[in-house]
């Protein structure tokens, strides 16, 4: 049985270990019990055999007087983030049996700060999806309604926090894969500025868009995790030299804040999403913020632009997976046949679709018509954001136009699935930080489902978003609830 009836925050757990009121081993056993009790959600795909040794090492460091910001805190990380001695499969059959020989920088920084990495969280195969239904391990279920998806592609990481398996977790966000599942499960999800968190050890989907980010229940936990994982890494050529200075804010951080509501995001939302957005805006006004509407006309091209960039990058990145070095190799008459058969059998349907479309967009005669043009539109989208930030401090949209949808509802319609990212992909295209804040509930078919509001800041102003989250908590505008289990 779990040690705690309700899982405390990471900040509180680390304090308990530091003061001797809890031990890293006890917290690890608590996390394992929670994972076992929630096995039906299919949020966790593998456990870290080295977790007990990590916990004991943390206990020794604390006993020696070290002050560790995440002392003993159990963490789950997405299955595309490498952890030494632990399988990294990206939710794909093609990496079955692959065990990482090294740590991703983000994982190494977690353990250096005293965290205990318990295991790996389920995900859409190679992070390509918005529902966590395409994993070779089977779909992850939403703890608010197991008949519905948790969002994706970092659905397992979102459920880990929403269902109280661990107080924080890591995911990756290429077009909304941290923020959208955070909204659909009722927790915080932060996509940092591109380059703010090292991508070393993150298996690439689309290299110019991918970014590791945390899930949490509190602004304080977002702050402590970002202070640990952010910062320059010489092993990542895109890493930025921007030392983290995160802290949760107060109501004072909302006074005078200029908030721009993106006009193009106001159509096509469900009634519950619209109500949650309006309630958040009312809370901001009540706290002294200045709220106005702004227009970013190029956002109507964001979905098409995103996929015309992400798919070609995926085609290039996934060319390395052919059975010759990683994962199982299909038996065939010659090497070429073996590679072809390995990819046919190893990749799922959605990954194959994106590889083929990406290869087409890069092929002779189409590169200029599709990929090059998309890159030019990407620049226009970034310019629209730059102009908007001349007049406002943060922008706000719904995170998703709807709450969690039913499993299987969109799997047969790729375009409908892609449209689930309509409010999030532009942030990745522009390389900006975005935060999904749990903002309310919408009742669908008699079931209360979480909805989220997304805040966007200028590049390298990630700290502003975490202060904003703390301010919203202070005025009671954050709706973090726990699903009944």
UniProtKB/TrEMBL annotation:
Enzyme Commission number, as recorded: 6.3.5.7
Keywords of this entry: ATP-binding, Ligase, Nucleotide-binding, Protein biosynthesis, Transferase
Signal peptide range: none
Gene: gatA
Membrane-spanning segments: none
Function: Allows the formation of correctly charged Gln-tRNA(Gln) through the transamidation of misacylated Glu-tRNA(Gln) in organisms which lack glutaminyl-tRNA synthetase. The reaction takes place in the presence of glutamine and ATP through an activated gamma-phospho-Glu-tRNA(Gln).
Gene Ontology annotations for the cellular component aspect, listed alphabetically: glutamyl-tRNA(Gln) amidotransferase complex
Pfam families: Amidase
InterPro entries assigned to the protein according to its UniProt record, in alphabetical order: Amidase, Amidase_CS, Amidase_dom, AS_sf, GatA
Protein's name according to its UniProt entry: Glutamyl-tRNA(Gln) amidotransferase subunit A
SUPFAM superfamilies for the chain: Amidase signature (AS) enzymes
Catalytic activity: L-glutamyl-tRNA(Gln) + L-glutamine + ATP + H2O = L-glutaminyl-tRNA(Gln) + L-glutamate + ADP + phosphate + H(+)
Enzyme kind, highest EC tier: ligase
Catalytic residue positions: 78, 153, 177
Molecular function via GO: ATP binding; glutaminyl-tRNA synthase (glutamine-hydrolyzing) activity; transferase activity
Subunit structure and binding partners: Heterotrimer of A, B and C subunits.
